[in-house]
Fold this sequence. Notes:
The chain is α/β, with parallel strands linked by helices. Helix content is 34%, strand content 15%. It has helices at residues 25-28, 60-63, 74-81, 124-131, 148-154, 188-198, 224-236, 249-268, 280-290, 294-318, 344-349, 378-395; strands at residues 9-10, 17-20, 41-45, 85-90, 137-141, 157-160, 181-185, 213-218, 240-245, 321-324, 353-358, 367-372. Strands 1-2-4-3-5-7-6-11-12-10-8-9 form a 12-stranded mixed sheet, with helices on both faces. Strand 1 (9-10) and strand 2 form a beta hairpin. Helix 6 packs antiparallel against helix 12, helix 8 (249-268) crosses helix 9 and helix 8 (249-268) crosses helix 10. The longest helix has 25 residues, at 294-318. The chain starts with 8 loop residues before the first strand and ends in a 7-residue tail after the last helix.
Amino acid sequence: MFRSCGRIERVMTDATWILRLDADADADADAAGHGHGIGPRLAVKDCIDVAGTPTTAGCRAVAEDAQPAVLDAPVVATARQQGARIVGKTNLVELCRRIDGTNAWTGTPVNPLDPERLPGGSSSGSAVAVARGEADVAYGTDTGGSVRVPAACCGIAGLKTTAGRIPTHGVVEFSRTLDTVGPLARDVAGLALGMSLMEPGFQIASRSEVPRTAARLRIPDIDPAVDDAIDAALAAAGVTYVDVFIREWDDWIGAANDIMTAEGYWAHRHLLERSDRIEERHVRSITAGEALAAADVVRSRRVGRVVRERLGRLLDEHHVLALPTLRTAPPRADEHPRMTYLTVPLNLAGLPAAALPVPRADGELPASLQLVGSWFAEERLLAVAAVVEEARGATGTISSRW
Length: 402
């Protein structure tokens, strides 16, 4: 096998991992969650280069020719410089192309909240590794919700970063203008740690900089219990909000999906030569990009400009936007909801967005609050998230059975 840091073990029985770079990471972890003071345990989604290991993107067509990466991706290199221990490469939806978290070739990571429910994707393995305590921080990528949705499904925290803030060099491309890299962790402090591994020197803003007003985005077709959980979490944190109804939301979703489809075709069309090594649903989504007219893509980019202007004005006034991450509870495997319904327009805008679990009054699986900040203002966004998280702990934590 390939060697780069510690003992590498190919995992065949646990669909969370593609490779374990240190099979003893769990046994070595101390009470604080770090191994013998040598830094946090970091899991890396297997679309990000880790020197000495192949990057497969969860795809047999890629894996058959994959060679060990010569260099770490920048986000991995900076993490090593900060003392992180890379404990493994995590499973994902093939080529990062779907949000459900399933993979017919490598297997599907089991949702630790409820094994009958989807783990969310495409960063499914990263979310599950964190939720199970097998990593302190995990890297994921988010093109339409692929950090926030698995965080929501697995009851943890996730951060989509501002487009362009974190370098995507050494990351398998899906949609050049929408792709981002971000951390998943059990709490907001873990997200801040993840940001500091990607961007040394990163620190959450002080409490004095935390805005206490928000624009509460009201989107149609949300489970009332989810909406109530979001409102209760904001109220508990002392955040006042103004309701804002976005009637163009479905148009924004369509524009983002068209851009993703068009750019995804150019990124993955070479793999169509091995279409028998790719899930049929992904073959269909790749080929769909070829049929998109250039004029349609240009129209979608113009919509993106409108989205940025509209949300930018709201952020100038309120500094933070709030809405759920998922419309319903995490779906079961036989359900097919639109899991990026509340996330993908924010990729179109390029804004940073944090997802964190909040309790539901009915005691069911936690809802997920999505907080959205201004461009390149993750420091203040995470400060707001920390205030909400702290209030949640004081007024009612996530049920211990989760």
